[in-house]
Amino acid sequence: MDNAIERIIAHRDKFQAWGSVLSVLALLAAMWVTAPTLQVNIPLAGGASASINAGYIIALGPTFIAFGQLWSFGSLVAMRQYQIKMLASENNLNKDGPHLLSIMGPLSSFANKPENDTSRTLIRQTSSARRGRSIVFFMVPILAQIIIVSHMLNNLMYFDKDAEIARFEQLDEQGKLLLNNWGIETKEVSVTETLFSKYPEGGNNYTLENSGLNEFCGAYLYLNHLKKVVNRTTVQEEVYKKLKDADIHCVPIEFPKYELALNFWINFAMLVLSLYVSWKGAKYYAGKDLSTR
Q1: What one-character DSSP code corresponds to residue 257?
Q2: Averaged over 1-26, what is the pLDDT?
């Protein structure tokens, strides 16, 4: 019996550890898409690096959150299997004894039944603690996915990189160096395009509607264009030097390229899957539907 109880506790602790980490990461992802100027560079072998930005959160966040929930949900399934076997095979369990409390869990619905000798105050505290943990483990990932998917529907923009370079080229030298002209013209991705189109009309250079995210992208695109020009004019050379010294950067240019409709429906399917996993997981974690005689 003791060995089986240890396995139940181990699976419960494993779920709580994974669930806590996943909830924190999901919360950070949801915050990231609301303030998308952040970009994280991950060092790779050979001095290379990979950039992760809000575009990857929009494209892949709900899928990774769902996969993380499925991984942690496996511990709850294993815990439930041991609980069922223990309750079915052991005939000497004391209903109010420590063995049954260990099997069900101190925050289970069993621990909150009025017929227990536990005081009413402790019952309320235990119930509140279980609800609080359920919010962290099962509600936060869902809310994070909803925020990410809603931003994909309502806040996703696109821009035409070639058109921006051509626009910048038409400016005179003073205009090219004017800070107000360093941004880009963005167009909203419509809901119809998100649901049914492969790419927006202007291509798959995505961004989010955030002035701080886009305000230097026009100059950055033009600077990269000038780097490829072999014989620059005098104006181009002067602009190139000044833009290079400005050390400008554009996060949206490193957003991933993906198919709109396919990506949205995958994310939506992952959200529905997470809803089911959270519903079942909350029941398993609370020890519901288990017969305690």
Answers
A1: P
A2: 90
Lowest mean pLDDT of 97-111, 151-165, 174-188, 246-260, name the range: 97-111
What 3-state class would DSSP assign to 49? Answer: strand
Helix, strand, coil content of the chain in percent (nearest 5)? 70, 5, 25
Residue 206, token pair as written in the block? 């995505």
SS3 track for 8-21: HHHHHHHHHHHHHH
Place of tokens 């396995």: 7
Burial of 87 (0-12, 13-18, 19+ CB in 10 A): middle
pTM of the model: 0.87
Domain-wise residue ranges, the chain: 2-153+269-286, 156-259
**Amino acid, res. 81:** Q
Report pLDDT for 125. 78
Give CA–CA dist 277/284, Å, rounded: 10
The C-alpha atoms of residue 268 and residue 283 are separated, in whole angstroms, by: 23
CA–CA separation, 290 and 271 (whole Å) = 28
pLDDT at 226: 93
Using CA atoms, how far apart are residues 143 and 191, in angstroms rounded to an integer?
A: 21
**Nearest residue to 254 (alpha-carbon basis) of 62, 60, 47, 54:** 54
Residue 67: pLDDT over 60: yes
Task: Kindly state the DSSP code that residue 189 receives in the 8-state scheme.
Answer: P
What is the residue whose two structure tokens read 């360093």?
182
Cβ(287)–Cβ(83) under 8 Å? yes
Strands 206-208 and 156-158: what pairing? antiparallel
* pLDDT score of 122: 74
Mean pLDDT of the chain: 87
Q: Exposed/middle/buried for 185, CB within 10 Å: 0-12, 13-18, 19+?
A: middle
For residue 49, the cross-strand partners are: 43
Contacts of 156 (CB under 8 A, 6+ apart): 58, 188, 189, 194, 206, 208
